[in-house]
Amino acid sequence: MAGRHTDQNANTLMRDPAWNRGRRACTAAMHSRDVQRLGLEDGQSVRVVTEAGRTEVELEVDDASRPGTVIIPHGFGLVYEGQEQGVNVNRLTKNTHRNPLAGTPLHRYVPCRVEAA
């Protein structure tokens, strides 16, 4: 699911990496039962793979996440002074996986696989 909300959500065009200094701002949040089942650990780098693409991101154990769900915030992936800040979760959503009426990508329901990077 793309769109984990934080108190610092902003459009990537406006994101200043300094806003997130000292935070775990762009992580893949998963419930502890899923993390344990997959043999993963909080803070490790994981690969999230979908039909559209793959990315590597830090794993965060968060029991506020529903079991079976991976949540990555939107608004990241900006290249700032030559360095990418977080991951662009939109790259994991296939452009043909969209609402039939509005045509907007269904970025809240993207099947994925999570594995150690």
Mind explaining what this structure looks like?
- The chain is mainly beta.
- The protein contains 1 helix and 6 strands; from the N terminus they run βαβββββ.
- It has one helix at residues 32-37; strands at 27-30, 45-49, 54-61, 78-80, 83-85, 113-116.
- The protein has one domain: Beta Barrel (Barwin-like endoglucanases).
- The strands form 2 sheets. Strands 1-3-2-6 form a 4-stranded mixed sheet. A two-stranded antiparallel ribbon has the order 4-5.
- A hairpin with a 2-residue loop joins strand 4 (78-80) and strand 5 (83-85).
Briefly characterize the structure.
The protein is mainly β and 117 residues long. It is built from one helix and six strands; from the N terminus they run E-H-E-E-E-E-E. The protein has one helix at residues 32-37; strands spanning 27-30, 45-49, 54-61, 78-80, 83-85, 113-116.
Structural class: mainly beta
Total beta strand runs: 6
End-to-end Cα distance, whole Å, is: 19 Å
Largest sheet: 4 strands, mixed
Radius of gyration: 14 Å
Give the SSE string. Answer: EHEEEEE
Helix proportion range: under 10%
Strand sequence of the main sheet, in spatial order?
Answer: 1-3-2-6
- Overall outline: globular
Low-confidence stretches: none
Number of helices: 1
